[in-house]
Amino acid sequence: MATFRYVAIDSRGRTIPGELEAEDRRSVRSHLRGKGLTPVEVKTKGNIAVVTKAKTKALKKTNHASKGGESEDGAPKKSFSLGGSKEKLGLEFMKRLLELHGSGMPVADSVKLLHQRLSDPQQKEIAGTLWRELSEGRSLARAMRLMPDYFGESTSYVIEAGEATGSVAPILRRIIGYIEEKREIRSKVLGSMAYPSFIGVIAFGVVLFFLFFLLPQIQDMLDSLGGELNFMAKALITGSNLVMTFGPFLALFLLIGAFSVRQWKKTEAGGIAVSGAMLRIPLIGRILYYSELFQLNSLVGTLVTSGIGLTENLRLSERTIQNLSFRMKFRSARALVNEGKSLPDALRKFDFMPAMQLDVMDVGERTGNLAHSLEEIANAFRTELSRRIKRMTTIVTAGALGFAFGLVALVAVSIVTSIFQVSNSITF
Known about the structure:
Blueprint: E1 2-9, E2 15-22, H1 25-34, E3 38-44, H2 48-63, H3 86-102, H4 107-117, H5 121-135, H6 140-144, H7 153-165, H8 168-225, H9 231-265, H10 268-279, H11 284-305, H12 310-318, H13 324-338, H14 343-349, H15 355-366, H16 370-425
Antiparallel strand pairs: 1-2, 1-3
Helix pairs in contact: 2-5, 3-4, 3-5, 3-8, 4-5, 7-8, 8-11, 8-16, 9-10, 9-16, 10-13, 11-12, 11-16, 12-13, 13-14, 14-15, 15-16
């Protein structure tokens, strides 16, 4: 028998530490679950260094798996970077975890079974790392934080809230739905931008061919015939010469400027300033704005449905906001909620979202149906986000095509008019 220190959470979400004598950690966790507690961490008393050593060893195995060899359980080491999107790998793993846990199997047993049954080496390694942490008594959320490339910070915090209330399955389902929708929106934007980008590259190549190959030959021909290029053609050649001369310096200046802004963004003042400026960029700024609102309202609604108190709910949700300027506004509103102000009134004071959605939230809070109101608000922001993306792609496509065809037409007209000008000057 050994003495173990544990940290557990009761049905009300309160943290309960304590000590217990048992044969192993599994017995401690079983005993705690039998008392209606959710174990978060189980450690051997006086042997914390052993736990830290095991965690460090697991991290080394994860980070250096590409060097070959075998793990402790005899499985060959695999690299996490063997092709494919890491976010997609994490998404696929969560889908499989949901299939098992949603059918009634405990989280730890589901992860262990996935580690034993999965054939994909990358997902098997993910399951192995998670299982090693879970077997040491750590929570799923803490285990996921060891692999931030596969499971985002927001994912681990939301799952932490789900573990506190014993509702991991619905949380996983909402996370999977959100990630899939985010990937779909990203794919839609990239797909709609592919055609104008292709046209722009082709037009740029044609212009380069005219300026650096065809136009010099025409100029030589006109010089031999005693003619000269018209003003438009001369302006194009002068412009191309200026680009060739000062282009490298301009590119270097832009690179230095981008690097400086990136370093400044790492400071708190710079991060707030840059994040605020991004929200004011035409077309893109509103897309970022509605994307943040959609994610935030969807998450807050999920946590409300899961039984998380509003104060803890907002604290967890704040960490998922990517835009720093937006996050500071939300933090100020959250402070007012902690002082007793209603959520819609606190958000309204900082002009956090449109008034119509705040009114819907206010009604939901007064009628005790806040979760449904937040879901409706998230759906409204999803619709608006899709509309904004469609509008942006339409404008960008039209602008790119117009600019490309206009540039090619300008070069072509300048060349043709120069040739006609010489032809008219020739007398027979």
